[in-house]
Specification:
- The two termini are 24 Å apart.
- The protein has eleven helices and eleven strands.
- It is globular and about 55 Å long.
- By secondary structure, the protein is α/β, with parallel strands linked by helices.
Length: 281
């Protein structure tokens, strides 16, 4: 049986299929994409469909995705977890640099609090480890913010299993966001460690940023046809079957695509179908 929910940090239960807000901003995560009203409506639709995990970041836009979430959903339902990220400064489309000094992380977190119109961020994730700053200092800044009640849970983005092991010496890590999907399993060791430690794994690019649907691997297409589903739905269903800690948050700017993604939660793969998909890599 595939579990439909997961408890992040041991105390916040979310539905495992969430919604990512990267598709609400322009190409390269820069500037707007369409009308703000349409983005707000899509956020409402996601909640109406039962989503209670929304993934965002301060550099989506930049700032814009967080602003849209607040415009659409504030005051927030008690069961909604908004996960945002800091530690990266975006300077143009697909152009950014890490910024992990403690004073930078504090300023970024406090700016996200203001944009999200909240006193505490449910899940605050370090977007990238800054190689120029000791890990203990970066995580120490987040621990201070947590002690002040400004962060509920701490997460990490794009780490190795070794880095995660080290981070766990300093902070209780509630989530990891690494790239992971049916055709890219380079973070398998991280996923296994998350499973062992009860850490949520929020895979970014769960559909390979479109690669899965474009490439149309034969096995993927075969399984999709058997279920009357899209290849994207099968790829998301595989993630839900792969590990109970995987919580995909696919993003889109389309209501139709949102519905398709969320309907993937109803797909149940057989052992034979899972084997076919596993063999893709």
């Amino acid at each position: 049986m595939v579990e439909t929910t997961y408890s992040i940090g041991g105390d916040f239960t979310v539905r495992r299929l969430g919604f990512g807000t990267g598709g609400l901003v322009g190409p390269g995560y820069w500037g707007p994409r369409g009308e703000r009203a349409a983005a707000r409506a899509l956020l409402h639709t996601a909640l109406d469909r039962g989503v209670n995990l929304i993934d965002t970041a301060d550099n989506y836009g930049p700032d814009l995705a967080e602003e849209l979430i607040a415009e659409a959903l504030h005051p927030y339902p008690d069961d909604l977890l908004v996960a945002t990220k800091g530690g990266v400064v975006r300077t143009g489309p697909d152009t950014w640099h890490v910024a992990g000094r403690p004073e930078q992380l504090r300023a970024m977190c406090e700016a996200s609090l203001r944009r999200l119109r909240t006193d505490r961020i449910g899940l605050y994730q370090l977007h990238r480890l800054d190689p120029a700053v000791p890990m203990a200092e970066q995580l120490g800044a987040l621990l201070e913010l947590r002690a002040e009640g400004k962060i509920r849970h701490i997460g990490l983005d794009t780490v190795t299993a070794e880095q995660l092991e080290e981070a766990l010496k300093y902070v209780p890590v509630a989530s990891v966001q690494n790239r992971y999907n049916l055709l890219d399993r380079s973070s398998e060791a991280v996923l296994e460690l998350c499973g062992e430690r009860g850490i949520a794994f929020l895979p970014w690019f769960p559909l390979g940023n479109g690669a899965l649907t474009r490439r149309g691997a034969a096995a993927l297409s075969t399984v999709a046809a058997e279920h009357g589903a899209s290849t994207g739905q099968i790829a998301l269903a595989w993630l839900l079957h792969r590990s109970p800690v995987l919580c995909p948050t696919p993003g889109t700017g389309s209501a139709e695509h949102l519905a398709e993604n969320l309907d993937a939660g109803t797909v149940r793969l057989s052992a034979r179908e899972t084997e076919l998909l596993e063999a893709l890599v």
